[in-house]
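Regression test attached.
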Amino acid sequence: MTRILAIGAVLILASLPFWADRGVIFLGMEILVVVALAQAWNLPAGYGGLLSLGHHGFVGLGGYALYVLSRDLGMHVLVAIPLAGVVTAIFALFIAPILFRLREVYFAVGMWVAAEILRILVSRSDWLGGASGLPLSGARDLPRAWMGPSAYWMALTAAVGTTLLVWALMRSSFGLRLRALRDDEAAARAIGVKPHRVRLIVFVLSAGATGMAGATMFFSSLFISPLAAFDMGWIVTIVFVTLIGGLGRLSGPFLGAAFYFLLREGLADYGNWYLIALGAAAMAIMLVLPGGLASLSDRFTPSFTKTKEQP
Amino acid sequence: MLEVTGLKKAFGKLTVVDDVSTTVAGGEAMGIMGPNGAGKSTFFDLLAGATRADAGTVRLAGQDISTLPTEARVEQGLARAFQIPKPFASLSVREHLELAAVAGAGLGSNEARLEAETVMDRTGLADLANETGNGLRLLDRKRLELAKALATRPRVILLDEISGGLTEHEVHELIALVLDLKTPDLAILWIEHIAHALKEACDKIMMLHLGAKIIEDTPDAVTSDSRVRELYLGAANHA
């Protein structure tokens, strides 16, 4: 039943560019990108206990990867966007041995520093357009009218893809490994779980999904600059959306994103007040509902179904 | 099955495990006794790879596993049931065992599901399959600890005071469980303070004191040894 509903919802979402105007399509794309980003961040943070404050580094890297693949290799943008995710994943694979020496809060800060270093390196590189940025040379790969819808469908693919990825992972024995590690690492190792390998897989998948979502976002803007690409605002949004929605829950990023965009659009006429409202709402939810909006459903279901509900 | 030679561990100037050598064959159960601070749990830490030994080797079925990390030793067939049960808060009993079968014994997910059922039947956990680790009473947590170790399909199993905190009746249930584990391809090492539990279940007993092995013999010979009486049983009688 849930599956039929989910498939129906995806089909309706996919048809949106045929009946909505440009503004709605753009907003829909933005929402879906945030869902994908939050889902990708939730995988290591919510299920694996690997809290990163540097995922905006992967957003920017994915964006720049798209621009370079399009400019230097002449790749079609719709091919380059998923490939930008692959590039980001490979990058994560290489920085993991250094960052994994840090644990918990040190890892979180280490990730943030890594993202800052990326931003500085990119803004000093002439090849990448320096501080002023780059235009998207593949902008003419598609007819102008198809740009918005294409970005939207890419974002939908990223959001649905990351959700399915997390869902499938958590249903498999890999999900058991991840949850066991989060609950008690020593006990998990004592039954043969390899902590390093499990975290590496989760980290690399998360980086790849984040890179693809970032590439989608900057595909639609047709221009990329280090300030916009490696903006701390990304990670702030990702963390807020995931915490408000529900850390370690599949529905968390959807609920959190809905809440975030309702507030942002609802208070659009009042400048940056939505940020203050968001902060206050986040604090209130964390105090009243530490499990996020997704945990609301627990309050109305008997406790014996809880273990099944939690993916 | 398990061959330990010259195992040593010191923390600073304090020698905790002092040149311990022993062998346990498949089908054999060895009890380990000793007063508090004798180095029993550290000895298990060294065998399981939770702590790296300063000197000495641990061989499992002829293969040197001394330098492997814990999880690799588990794959080789060395499992441990902890003194303080460590259930995973968010996993059901069945999931605990499926994970142990997948990660520890390298089974596929279908085989692992069957293995979990088998182990639950064997350890009396079948009725609690969907309970999470946190919802179990002490005896069942201890059973789960044992069941997790079994689901990794061990060749050597380390039992660390699994009867601690249980009632007399529950201890007997556990002894029956351990006796039931005895098969020709499993070596059992069991740390326990309750002497009669070890006497009932073990083929031999090793006595540790200040990290060193004092005696290793049949349960009757060990419990009637004068040094052991003085060190351990004497102390236990006073307590």
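Expected vs. actual: identical. The first helix of chain A runs from residue 2 to 19.
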